[in-house]
Specification:
The protein is mainly α. The chain folds into 2 domains: 3-62; 75-138, no CATH class. The chain has 5 helices and no strands. The chain has helices spanning 3-24, 40-62, 75-95, 97-112, 117-138. α3 packs antiparallel against α4. It is flat, with a radius of gyration of 19 Å.
Amino acid sequence: MELKFDRIASIVFLTIGVLFMIGSKHISSSSYGSVVGPDIFPFILGILLVLLSIRLFYETFVKQSGKGNKEELQYKPFIIIFIATLLYILTLESVGYVITTFLFLVVCFQTMERKKLIPSIIIAAAFSGIVYFLFVDVLKGTLPGWPIWF
């Protein structure tokens, strides 16, 4: 990766993260029947984006520019994960959070590393189930439930 591009990208992402944090303060702090308000998630995402962009900016100064080691772009995994993300967005409401997230994670894990199918299934199932339980039962938030036909 080019260090100049990384520096510019880190500044852009830092700005977006700060705008997320500022914008989240203009969202109401509670929603109907939920203890966790809609302002929490964008604020946390903004903090993460700011921290990651600061780290990227720092790494551009620490790394020495290696001119001869260009990495080959991997278009196929990008396209697979991009299509999986679009399908995830389109089917989240109708199929439900747990099933859709499980399938999305399995596809993404298998795209990144094909040989480990069983660990991918276990991690995807545990993650989607635990997040659903924590958000819906513990935090009293709302997520799309199970499909009607289930």
